[in-house]
UniProtKB/TrEMBL annotation:
Superkingdom of the source species: Eukaryota
Entry keyword annotation includes Cell cycle: no
InterPro entries xrefs: TPR-like_helical_dom_sf, TPR_rpt, TTC5_OB, TTC5_OB_sf
TPR repeats: 36-69
Residues annotated as domain Tetratricopeptide repeat protein 5 OB fold: 126-227
Annotated SMART domains: TPR
Cross-referenced Pfam families: TTC5_OB
The keyword Zinc appears for this protein: no
Keywords: TPR repeat
Protein name (database record): Tetratricopeptide repeat protein 5 OB fold domain-containing protein
Length: 237
């Protein structure tokens, strides 16, 4: 539990959660370790790592062991609510784009783009141009559509939209407060870590994890250091 404690009270680094996750996986091999504690704590780790599908499985196991376990039920409801909100925001845009595509089809001519534009696009990418995992030597740019997390939640979760009008999820560690990154702000993420946001491994949405806030600019400026301090202090209250 030391890794989990350090995450909440000292610094918000995913590596601490990964270490804690490894510890609980080892504990699972020990029959004497309380199953309910194992599932609820591992589920909490997976939830903070944005691995909602795996977290859901552990919370459901905890409830199966102890049907009266309210905390597991609350976490499940919280994840479901957030996922439903993301789905609503993303799919609303997808529906509008489908209608627009049905009315108009525009093909770009080869060689139409200038060399300068091509060089710019090799650095600044849309979500559809990224591969799974870390994408070095590129920057993902998008505008915030909506913050879908509570003020003191970790990570802070946003739905954003790129230059191609594709919406995706961004999970930001190391920051706190819903006023630091307002709706409409432009985010530029260096070396974006690309994954999937899913609750059941059936429906999934593109997701970018940002652990190091120094790789992120908001409207062209770095997030101030005191924003990170606020995030840590808010969890201690």
């Amino acid at each position: 539990m030391a890794h989990l404690t350090r995450f909440f009270h000292e610094r918000k680094r995913q590596e601490d959660m990964q270490d804690a996750l490894s510890a609980f996986r080892f504990a699972e091999t020990k029959p004497s370790f309380p199953r309910v504690d194992l599932y609820i704590n591992r589920g909490t780790i997976l939830k903070f790592l944005m691995s909602y599908a795996a977290a859901k499985e552990d919370y459901e196991k905890a409830i199966k062991e102890d049907p009266s376990y309210k905390q597991a039920k609350d976490y499940l409801a919280e994840m479901q609510s957030q996922f439903d909100l993301v789905a609503q925001i993303v799919e609303r845009k997808v529906s509008k784009m489908a209608k627009k595509a049905g009315k108009t089809s525009v093909k770009k001519k080869e060689g139409e783009k200038s060399q300068e534009k091509k060089e710019e696009e090799s650095i600044y990418s849309a979500i559809g141009q990224l591969k799974g995992g870390k994408n070095d030597s590129c920057i993902l740019v998008g505008h915030v559509v909506q913050n879908v997390s509570n003020r003191d939640s970790t990570p802070q979760v946003f739905v954003c939209e790129d230059s191609e009008e594709t919406r995706f999820v961004v999970a930001l560690y190391d920051i706190g407060g819903d006023d630091i990154i307002p709706t409409g702000a432009e985010l530029a993420i260096q070396r974006p870590l690309y994954g999937a946001f899913s609750l059941d491994n059936k429906k999934a949405y593109p997701m970018i994890i940002v652990e190091d806030f120094t790789t992120l600019t908001v409207n062209g400026a770095l997030i101030p250091q005191d924003a990170r301090t606020f995030a840590v202090m808010s969890e201690k209250k």
